[in-house]
Amino acid sequence: MDFIKTEIEGVWIIQPKRYGDARGYFCETFRQDLFDEHVGRVEFIQDNESFSTRGVLRGLHFQKGEWSQAKLVRVSQGTVVDVCVDLRADSPTFGHHVMCELSAESGRMMFVPHGFAHGFLVLSDVAQFQYKVDNVYAPQAEATLAWDDPDLAIAWPFPEGGPLLSEKDKKGVPLKDVYRF
Predict the structure, then answer these.
(1) CB atoms within 10 A of CB 24
(2) Which of 19, 25, 38, 61 is catalytic?
């Protein structure tokens, strides 16, 4: 696995090595010792999965306080553009984001540390999105950052007709009012 630092401290792109032949390929999608060596110790306790269609935008989500989650995300079917936004109050990159295309074809993953909002936009007909988290879902602590806040300047590559959003995601708060870690 190759661990690639991004322009925001703590966010990593991880590229598994694939070993292929006429039958297909094999790769490791997670290895604790390599993760510890490059990223640091994170104890993942739960795996989640979502399935979405083209144009679905999920996010930008996070959990506040003691319920904050670090995530290791990947796509096992289709293609998404994945985004995380720094909400760490004392960070020199507060309000900045990392955007990365994740696909089943590339196998690329992103590590999103505590203190970030996270979301993705589906670019393919369908996408199966998987993520490891280090804390359980806590509905009382969930929050949503406005995906379309002009202060974020996220250049989402929307399909014609714009994004398909949940009611929760339509009501995200702007960066100026968001919870800070």
Answers:
(1) 8
(2) 61
> φ and ψ at 46, to 5 degrees?
-155, 145
- Catalytic choice (19, 131, 137, 179): 131
Check if 114 is active-site: no
SS3 24: strand
Does the active-site annotation cover 118?
no
Domains, the chain: 2-177 (2.60.120.10)
- How many CB atoms within 10 Å of residue 91? 17
pLDDT in tens, the chain (181 residues): 999 999 999 999 999 999 999 999 999 999 999 999 999 999 999 999 999 999 999 999 999 999 999 999 999 999 999 999 999 999 999 999 999 999 999 999 999 999 999 999 999 999 999 999 999 999 999 999 999 999 999 999 998 888 999 999 999 999 999 999 9
How far from each other are the two terminal CA atoms of the chain, in whole angstroms?
Answer: 30
Residue 146's closest CA among 114, 103, 117? Answer: 117
Please check whether residue 72 is in contact with residue 45, taking contact to mean a CB–CB distance below 8 angstroms. no
What's the pTM value of the predicted model, to 2 decimals? 0.94
